[in-house]
């Protein structure tokens, strides 16, 4: 991805164009061109074709995109996911072990990181907590993002950090459920069918209407852009939403849990 970005930057300079001017010529955002050149965003084929025409490259960029290994299109690092999450217009998240990072309180996040093995230093924990909370600005954008969460009921039952942290987290979750654009659904115990048994995942739609999936494992993470693979996860998520409690039932469940404490 960085190589393609460097190629684009050189071709643009050879043509005597600034990033701003090139963006205008291909009807793209300046930030899109800048991010591609910096290796932070992949070059999509449709845009590569336009750039080849404008820069008169003879199809160099299109060929590079067509032959780019999947792992180079999307580096397997959480940082890449966070960058895309910040720009997303829609986010759908399924979790069965912990609350999604966008819904965690500082205390809950700290408890999560305190359970890491090998243990993190206090400085590392605080840095990660701070970074996680900063991501939550997406919850309160001026133009609300379409945010959907399906969360296992088991997450509500665990007491990470103790009773006080748990109650504060549940209260925060209940407040988030009332935010504009936010939909929270609980997957109840006792299901005889379950579309999420293969584990948690996140679906993103970017400002460029690119659909991406993100999954974490014990030792890493993966961004998936292949349309057929993203489609499978999108269908799973649609099924999860039909299997989970609806929005009103979820709010009632959280209210009951809060009333029991």
Automatic annotation (TrEMBL):
It comes from the Bacteria. Pfam families: DUF5753 (PF19054), HTH_31 (PF13560). The lineage of its organism: Bacteria, Bacillati, Actinomycetota, Actinomycetes, Kitasatosporales. CDD domains: HTH_XRE. This is Helix-turn-helix domain-containing protein. InterPro entries: Cro/C1-type_HTH, DUF5753, Lambda_DNA-bd_dom_sf. SMART domains: HTH_XRE. SUPFAM superfamilies: lambda repressor-like DNA-binding domains.
């Amino acid at each position: 991805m960085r190589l393609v970005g460097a190629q684009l930057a050189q071709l643009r300079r050879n043509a005597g164009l600034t990033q701003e001017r090139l963006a205008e010529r291909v009807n793209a955002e300046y930030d899109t061109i800048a991010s591609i050149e910096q290796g932070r965003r992949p070059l999509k084929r449709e845009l590569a074709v336009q750039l080849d025409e404008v820069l008169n490259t003879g199809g160099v960029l299109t060929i590079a995109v067509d032959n780019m290994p999947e792992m180079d299109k999307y580096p397997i690092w959480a940082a890449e996911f966070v960058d895309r999450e910040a720009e997303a217009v829609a986010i759908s998240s399924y979790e069965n072990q912990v609350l999604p990072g966008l819904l965690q309180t500082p205390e809950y996040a700290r408890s999560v990181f305190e359970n890491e093995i090998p243990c993190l230093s206090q400085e590392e924990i605080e840095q990660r907590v701070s970074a996680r909370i900063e991501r939550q600005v997406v919850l309160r954008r001026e133009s609300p993002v379409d945010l959907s969460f399906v969360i296992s009921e088991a997450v509500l039952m665990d007491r990470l950090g103790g009773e006080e942290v748990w109650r504060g987290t549940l209260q925060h979750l209940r407040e988030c459920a009332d935010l504009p654009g936010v939909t929270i659904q609980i997957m109840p115990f006792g299901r005889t069918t379950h579309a999420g048994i293969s584990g948690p995942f996140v679906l993103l739609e970017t400002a460029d209407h690119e659909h991406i999936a993100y999954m974490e494992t014990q030792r890493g993470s993966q961004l998936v852009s292949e349309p057929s693979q993203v489609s499978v996860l999108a269908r799973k998520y649609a099924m999860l939403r039909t299997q989970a409690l609806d929005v009103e039932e979820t709010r009632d469940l959280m209210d009951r849990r809060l009333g029991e404490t």
